[in-house]
Amino acid sequence: MIKPTSEKMQNIQHLIPEFERWKERYPSDFTGSLTIPCLRRIQEERGYIADSDIDELVAYLGVPRMQVDEVIAFYTQFTREPLGTHHLQVCHNLSCSLRGAEGLVGYLCNKLGIQPGETTADGKFTLSTVECLASCGTAPMMMVNDTYHENLTPATVDALLEDLTR
Amino acid sequence: MTAPDSTTPAFPALSGRKYFMNFPVTDTSHSLEAYKARGGYQSLHKALTSMQPTDVTKEVSASGLLGHGGAAFPAGRKWGVIKLTDGEPHYVCMNADEGEPGTFKDRWLLEHVPHLCIEGLILASYAIMGRHAFIYIRGEFDLPYRRLRDAIEEAYAAGLLGENILGTGYSLDIVLYRGAGSYVCGEASAMLASLEGKKGWPRNRPPRLTVKGLYQRPTVVNNVETLANIPAIVGEGGEAFRKVGLPKSPGTQMISISGHLVRPGVYEIEYGYSWEKFIYEDCGGILGGRGLKCVIPGGVSTKILDANELKGRTLDHNSALAAGSQIGSGGMIVIAEGTCMVRVARVIQRFYHHESCGQCTPCREGMGWMERILDRVVRGEGRPEDIDRLYHISNANDGTTICSLGDSAGYACSAILDHYREEFEYFITHGRSMYDGSLTVEDPFAAVGATA
Ligand SMILES: Cc1cc2nc3c(=O)[nH]c(=O)nc-3n(C[C@H](O)[C@H](O)[C@H](O)COP(=O)(O)O)c2cc1C
Ligand code: SF4
Ligand code: FES
Q1: Distance CA B81, CA B95 (A)
Q2: Which atom of ligand 2 is nearest to the CA of B202?
Q3: Euclidean distance between CA atoms B118 and B109, whole angstroms
Q4: Cα–ligand 3 centroid distance for A139 (angstroms)
Q5: What is the pLDDT of residues B27-69, one digit of tens each?
Q6: pTM higher than 0.90 for the full model?
Q7: What is the ipTM of this complex?
């Protein structure tokens, strides 16, 4: 096990006890596996992953920097840039499209004045389209940060946005 | 704002045997206490106190249980490959990545019967003498993750996990591992790469994962639903399980059904159930009083079947195969008369292009190419040679790629072309859809004016 040196771990120092606890349930040689859980935890806190986070994680886990960079680029949930406070992710796969996903995207574009992939000027909302979120029976739907909102209609979208803007 | 915990609605039960949807869902029915009151963890107790690991595998083989992740591989045969005396650690990984479009039944299981899933995973681990097991859950899942996390902690606290389970000397730790957004990580070898903390690239076989899997150790990967069947098989015995359903399709199937349907949702059917009765009666038939055009039976990666091909069919593996398709992941998507199939194909192809991991040339290049062609056709700029080209690219992926994402995309596309070629020809000739071009029957956003 690598003992972290405190002066090099300004960003993730406070998370290390948690990371160490996770190891208790892993087989002994599984340090590399922690890459994804650690990145998730770092992003959960900051909203994105900064270069300095990666440096510290590489030092802590002892995995190649290249592996961490590849992981961040490969998985769609990781981001190197800050997103809006509320990340609206609308599923536009088949079942949702059959139940009005296109209309939902258009409605959100109109209301927020942005296109998918963009963030509102006040930094409150980022809009994205994503693939199936396993919520096809309750379409159309979107995920706002961690939470699924299903069976959406103009009225429920209005209420939700109002709530989030408040 | 915190939305109410979203759970899939429950509907009146279909006739037939149930292993999962056999209790009233309440706010607490997922707890350890409620699960134990329904007889939960008795199979674990039985196995750990009166069965050898090989006995568990024997029962699973005798049950004829087929994997529910998509390929219907016999579970007992997979476990049987593991050599219990090779001195290596062995791992079981539960595949809870559920990414196949149209599939949301594992979510139901994780939300409502997390302990059943965990009991199945412990039994599987015991059967292959594993000391550590993994659950790989897709990164977007929130409530299923929290339910599973809490259930695991409950199980540890009750002595059902950790050292010396139920005082029997068997020990097992479970790692609950969250993905981070990637469809291809549902493919077993990609999932293991992801569990090793790498990007999720599938790899060629051999060696099989049961020979060299996670960290080069023998590894069994099973779908959530597959493992959730194990407690019943151990409890009632493999022979008894085999009598449920049909001889070549033992047991039940969790069907997630969505699309142009009055009552979409998750249903458990006993294999052999009437396909038409299921759609027209149990699920309430097609929206807007329309006719049924076609069904994608088991996730978008399975071949489309039209209304005629479903006539008189039952829901089971042989029947689906005879019709030219598969039960797959049980993710059934229902499409009404009047729906533009060119646009359906485009949505599906956009998905495959987005999810191709890019390792194999035919898949990396082909998926984007097919999407560009379909985009062009939908814009009204299709060319006469486009149909042949789509077939050509589909065929070029057949059997030439590492994982079956490329093949499946090709099969899905050519099956739509085979059935609805005239719609593609019409779109290319006239520059517009043969129908109104819409994908919806009832669009909640239609009145407020959107992109259409
Ligand atoms: C591209 C791709 C995606 C897959 N996604 C999933 C998935 O989300 N869940 C799953 O259980 N199996 C998925 N599979 C199938 C797995 O590779 C594997 O066969 C399955 O988990 C084995 O479990 P079973 O034998 O219990 O069915 C996928 C396969 C491919 C090729
Ligand atoms: S077929 Fe496609 S997704 Fe599968 S390994 Fe090859 S490039 Fe990746
Ligand atoms: S298609 Fe949108 S959640 Fe599955």
Answers
A1: 19
A2: 5
A3: 11
A4: 7
A5: 999 999 999 999 999 999 999 999 999 999 999 999 999 999 9
A6: yes
A7: 0.96
